[in-house]
Amino acid sequence: MPYTKRIDGRGFDETRKIEAKVGVIKRADGSAMFKIGNTWAYAAVYGPRNLHPKFLQDPQRGILRCNYNMMPFSSSGERVRPGGSRRSKEISLVTGKALLPVLDLEEYPNSVVDVFIELPQTEAGSRCAGICAASMALADAGLEMKDLVSAVSAGKVDDKLVIDLDYAEESYKDGSVADIPIAIMPNSGKITLLQMDGEIKKDELMRLIDMAKKALNDIYEIQKKALKEKYHEVEM
What we know:
By secondary structure, this protein is of the alpha+beta class. The chain has one domain: Ribosomal Protein S5, domain 2. The protein has helices at residues 86-99, 126-140, 167-170, 202-235, and strands at residues 18-22, 30-36, 39-50, 63-70, 111-121, 150-157, 160-163, 177-185, 190-194. β1 (18-22) and β2 (30-36) form a beta hairpin. The longest helix is centred in the C-terminal third of the chain and has 34 residues, at 202-235. The N and C termini lie far apart (56 Å). The mean pLDDT is 91.
């Protein structure tokens, strides 16, 4: 059966409903919440602070450490096993690589910036939601940044190119599925993350990137608005 319309009624280039807020965790140096559909990501930043043990320190620049964790009851699919996993380690690594290009860690030699990302509820797009929340939390912590980082999933369901796949689309059984998380620095348009699970043609990938950039610019505006709202409240 051909995939003629999205299960939740969205247009093929539309994201799920998005909410964002910063300053949600009081004792963190910076924090943020990013919700897209039924996927919730909370990020907390601690640092820059001295890195211990000292043999891990870099005298030239600070180190960014990211920790991504889906809570056991969070998934729309099978229950997530508590503790670290190969998947959580891989996502922690790519999250750090997606965020590094906007940070100037040479200002913080021998230091570490820790980013903890917790997902209490997920329904697809969790790594992208985590990157969006982490980017906002880093800005909330006052680190010097060239830009924010905005992320969204794109992909192909059967023969249709779509933005922001939900769980029903990721697990679609009547055709092939390709899932492609994308992160960019919105002001420069530079891509900081591009992964792919599935198969897609080169021309379709280029079209998807163009579709994603429009959605990512909308996400960027939501991220900026959340940051401005916090500091507007402080000024008042």
